[in-house]
Every structure is written in structure tokens, then in C-alpha cells.
Write a structure and sequence with these properties.
The chain is of the alpha+beta class and about 80 residues long. It has a domain at about 25-70. The protein has helices spanning about 25-35, 35-45, 60-70; strands spanning about 25, 50-55, 55-60. The protein has a 3-stranded antiparallel sheet. A hairpin with a 2-residue loop joins strand 2 and strand 3 (about 55-60).
Length: about 80
């Protein structure tokens, strides 16, 4: 485990395909949210953050991550 990894995720290397959701790894979702694995799994297990399983690997759809962030937003202005 790399404890010195940056806490900001860069998805510029990912291609986007019109009409398809981008799937993020759990590590990428943790980076975006700035949380650890335990809290991420808690949010997934209580149904707050939907996930997709492909084989033995879990992923989070980008749109679900954005929805989760918006639902948990406190104060400030909403960005359109």
C-alpha cells in the first residue's frame, strides 16, 4: 500500500464513450472522496454508494459517485 499516493485522482487517461458510464476502481473512488477503504466499504454495504461487480472486482460508476457527492453536499452553492 502506497501511503504517499496523491489524494487527487486524474482521470484524463481514461477514454470516454458516449452513452457509456466510466467505471472507477475502488482506489480511484477513495481518491476522489478523500476517504479510506473502511468508510468506502461501509457506504457501499449500507446502499449509499451503488457498485458493480465484474468477476471478483468491484467498481463504482462515475455517475453514482457524482450522485453520492451531491447527496452528501453540505452548505455552499450547488454547481449546475
Amino acid at each position: 500500500m502506497n501511503l504517499n499516493r496523491p489524494r487527487t485522482a486524474d482521470f484524463s487517461h481514461r477514454e470516454t464513450h458516449e452513452g457509456l458510464d466510466i467505471l472507477l476502481s475502488l482506489d480511484e473512488a477513495m481518491d476522489v472522496l478523500g476517504i479510506g477503504r473502511t468508510l468506502l466499504y461501509k457506504q457501499m454495504s449500507n446502499g449509499e454508494l451503488p457498485w458493480v461487480q465484474i468477476g471478483s472486482t468491484r467498481h463504482i460508476r462515475r455517475v453514482d459517485l457524482i450522485d453520492f457527492i451531491e447527496r452528501n453536499r453540505k452548505g455552499g452553492r450547488r454547481v449546475a
